[in-house]
Design brief:
Chain A: It is found in: Cell membrane. Chain A: Keywords: Cell membrane, Membrane, Transmembrane, Transmembrane helix, Transport. The complex is a heterodimer of chains A (299) and B (262). Chain A is mainly α and 299 residues long. In chain A, 77% of the residues lie in helices and 0% in strands. In chain A, helix 5 packs antiparallel against helix 8. The radius of gyration of chain A is 25 Å and the shape is globular. Chain B is mostly helical and 262 residues long. Chain B has a single domain, classed as MetI-like fold (Orthogonal Bundle), CATH 1.10.3720. Classes of the chains: A mainly alpha (299), B mainly alpha (262). At the A-B interface, helix 1, helix 4, helix 5, helix 6 and helix 8 of A face helix 1, helix 3, helix 4, helix 5 and helix 6 of B.
């Protein structure tokens, strides 16, 4: 008796989260795929599904409708916003690496007592609302905002900078919001770095710069890759930052999906955009995983 | 004790200034008597009073807190079970699919998660509101909760559980009296993370909510769309204060736990 109770308890441990995810993760995903292959209709829900039930897979395949996908490839709005999202995400990642690496390096070099405090200070903004952090920058960047005021006070700028609703504003907001994601993995790898290796390099006559380039940098590569992935992936699909800080010419794909859904009410097209967005995101991940496996195999 | 060179100290000061000055400015201007951001009209708590009279905002805040409490609890229970399944159950049918589904929401763009869940709720004709958002939040924060608990379970001394079972405890009793007390800091951290994720979410809630269930981020978003106002600054300051208190309390708790554990 006790054994059978134990076995069923063990089964429940797997079954409960499994069923939850099948129902609320996989099923919705299948519905999006199906929706992407439907025609837009004016009725609510605004779509005309192309198949009902599994028995009609044959007829479903025969009338597969790639219209939404061809619209995405034909209309420059869509592929341009995809490319633009990738560009902004890549720039964000590079700038965050440029700021985050020295910061993580300095944190790793600090004494243990300081490290704990500095770590909390990096994590703390992550816990405060995303919306609040973006809002803070609106107050700074808007015309006659804090930045203009400070620069004017210093006598550095005569005219308002008009940064809000530009690409620069979007980049500032993105780097600001995602910086902790870059610093944390970098700090973890740099902190674990064996300092005797640097001493050995110095003993063998290398300058601090050569030691950094030949010892520290290669050894921190896993942290760099992890940090870049953590920044790049959410940055591609970002909606809030380009919406609040960007302007009419900073159209990222997350915003296109949002507009397609909420403003144009074209659910099938929004679904097709979502599918393509996932493909765009998953491909680099798979490549990264492959590169990591290849590196692991070589080592 | 290592000594930092002046260059590295400068890097630290500049880096943390970048991270904190915008938030500090936001807090400072919540105490500005003047409505204009460019004019400092003296210290005032006027906007906090105005906030207390803003009933829609208070309702939204209360809804967000309730949502966070319920969805974080769901996410923590499910995430802990998922972590147990992944760490303890070795091979089971569909394990790859399972771990994929647990981790996928972590890299899924919010717009995609929101859209797909909404389509599910429409397909089954569920009434959209509190419970649909709760399910959505529990689903996307489950993976985060799972990772936190998983890391604790991985560095866990299994001989303690084996000892309990040798002494005749059933697996359930073992879990309740040995496993859970040992992993609870991770479970508590997972809950806090899930709660914050829920409280912070704008995109997924916007997709999955219905009429009458407007969350705090949704209210703030529409207010921010209209422009900067000291009242929003005041609301943000209260939220920042609450989060800062919670994080400090949690890190003290964890520190005490580590001291007691070592």
């Amino acid at each position: 008796m006790a054994v059978s109770v134990a076995t069923s308890a063990r089964r429940l441990v797997v079954a409960v989260p499994y069923l939850w995810l099948l129902l609320f993760f996989l099923a919705p995903f299948v519905i999006v795929l199906r929706m992407a292959l439907s025609d837009a209709a004016t009725a609510l829900p605004p779509y005309a599904p192309h198949f009902e039930g599994l028995s009609t897979i044959g007829s479903f395949l025969s009338q597969l409708d790639l219209e939404n996908f061809s619209l995405i490839t034909d209309d420059p709005l869509y592929w341009q916003s995809y490319l633009y999202s990738l560009r902004i995400a890549a720039l964000t990642t590079l700038i965050a690496l440029g700021i985050g690496y020295p910061l993580a390096y300095a944190m790793a070099a600090a004494s243990r007592r300081w490290q704990g405090l500095l770590l909390v200070l990096v994590i703390l903004p992550f816990w405060t609302s995303f919306l609040i952090r973006v809002y803070a920058w609106i107050g700074i960047l808007r015309p006659e905002g804090l930045l203009d005021m400070v620069l004017g006070g210093l006598g550095l700028a005569g005219e308002p900078l008009r940064l809000l609703n530009t690409e620069t504003a979007v980049l500032i907001g993105m780097v600001y919001s995602y910086l902790p994601f870059m610093v944390l993995p970098l700090f973890t790898t740099l902190e674990k770095l064996d300092r005797s290796l640097l001493e050995a390099a110095a003993d063998l006559g290398s300058t601090p710069l050569t030691a950094f380039l030949t010892v520290t940098l290669p050894l921190s590569l896993p942290g760099i890759l992890a940090g870049c992935a953590l920044v790049f992936i959410p940055a591609v699909g970002e909606f809030v930052i380009p919406d609040l800080l960007g302007g009419p010419d900073t159209v990222m794909i997350g915003k296109v999906l949002w507009n397609e859904f909420f403003s144009n009410r074209d659910w099938p097209l929004a679904s097709a955009v979502a599918i393509v967005l996932l493909i765009v995101l998953v491909l680099p991940l798979v490549l990264l995983q492959r590169a990591r496996l290849a590196r692991g195999g070589a080592a | 004790m290592r000594r930092l060179g002046p260059g590295l100290v400068l890097v630290l000061v500049a880096g943390f200034a970048f991270l904190y000055l915008p938030i500090l400015a936001l807090i400072a201007y919540s105490f500005n008597a003047s409505r204009l951001v460019t004019v400092w009209g003296g210290f005032s708590t006027h906007w906090y009073g105005a906030l207390m009279a803003n009933q829609p905002l208070l309702d939204a805040a209360w809804l967000s807190v309730r949502l966070g409490l319920v969805s974080a609890t769901f996410a923590t229970v499910l995430g802990t079970l998922a972590a147990l399944a992944l760490v303890r159950h070795g091979r089971f049918v569909g394990r790859t699919l399972f771990s994929g589904m647990v981790l996928a929401p972590l890299v899924m763009p919010e717009v995609v998660t929101g859209l797909s869940l909404l389509l599910l709720f429409v397909a089954v004709d569920a009434e959209r509101g509190f419970w649909t958002v709760t399910i959505a939040h529990a689903t996307f924060s489950l993976g985060f909760a799972c990772i936190v608990v998983q890391s604790r379970l991985a560095g866990f001394d299994r001989s303690l559980e084996e000892a309990a079972q040798d002494l005749g405890a059933t697996p359930l009793v073992t879990f309740a009296t040995v496993t859970l007390p040992l992993i609870w800091p991770a479970v508590a951290a997972a809950w806090m993370l899930a709660f914050t994720l829920s409280l912070d979410d704008l995109v997924i809630a916007s997709f999955t909510t219905g009429p009458g269930a407007t969350t705090l981020p949704m209210r703030l978003y529409s207010a921010v769309k209209l422009g900067v106002s000291p009242e929003i600054n005041a609301a943000c300051t209260i939220m920042i204060g609450a989060v800062a208190l919670a994080v400090i309390a949690a890190s003290l708790l964890l520190k005490r736990e580590q001291v007691a554990g070592s």
